[in-house]
Amino acid sequence: MVAEDSALMRDGLITLLERFGHDVCASVDNAGDLAKAAKREEPQLVITDVRMPPDHNDDGLRAALDLRQQTPGSPVLVLSQYVEKSYAMRLLDSGDGRAVGYLLKDRVGAVTDFVDAAEQVASGGTVFDPDVIRQLLVQRGSLLARLTARESEVLYQMAQGRSNAAIARELVVTDAAINKHIGNIFAKLELSTTGDEHRRVAAVLEYLRS
């Protein structure tokens, strides 16, 4: 479902998603209707603006966070006009950081990347806009300081929701090299050896929170 108070933006998102074979079960223009429609439709993904009626403040985000509290794991992709770090951190702190995304609205123009991000969030992934990541990384934690430049680059790519194969293509290295880097990242961040998918999410959260 799509929650966006701009009719032009809302219709554009619906058209885009449907072009790629997704069904939009509901579209709303305010936070109150977001909550009602999400309860009624139980969507596989909620795409919402941050600032929406009735207060035109952070109503959309608060409705999305309430949804994730009431129905843990509900996938939410937030769109924002600006990088707002406090909103990004509130998303990361909800539902252990899984199935959430935060993208700037101008990324919607990169059609394939946007749809890919939406699909990753719907599947339980964590996708954050590169500009959001950069602003969250003004200060680095002591554990992250252990990483080499290449390992930091790999983790940066992971934080954007890219798969190992996609990272390998982006950095022009082998899949085996990426697997080795990721293993080193897990070790240096002192993450548990159980559950690679959980460790991947935990590594990204450590990266974004620091």
UniProtKB/TrEMBL annotation:
The modification 4-aspartylphosphate is found at D49. Gene3D superfamilies: 3.40.50.2300. It comes from Brevibacterium marinum. This is DNA-binding NarL/FixJ family response regulator. Residues 1-120 form the Response regulatory domain. Keywords: DNA-binding, Phosphoprotein, Transcription, Transcription regulation. Pfam families: GerE, Response_reg. One of its GO terms (biological process) is phosphorelay signal transduction system. It comes from the Bacteria. PROSITE patterns: HTH_LUXR_2, RESPONSE_REGULATORY. GO terms for molecular function: DNA binding. InterPro entries: CheY-like_superfamily, NreC/VraR/RcsB-like_REC, Sig_transdc_resp-reg_C-effctor, Sig_transdc_resp-reg_receiver, Tscrpt_reg_LuxR_C, WalR-like. Residues 140-210 form the HTH luxR-type domain.
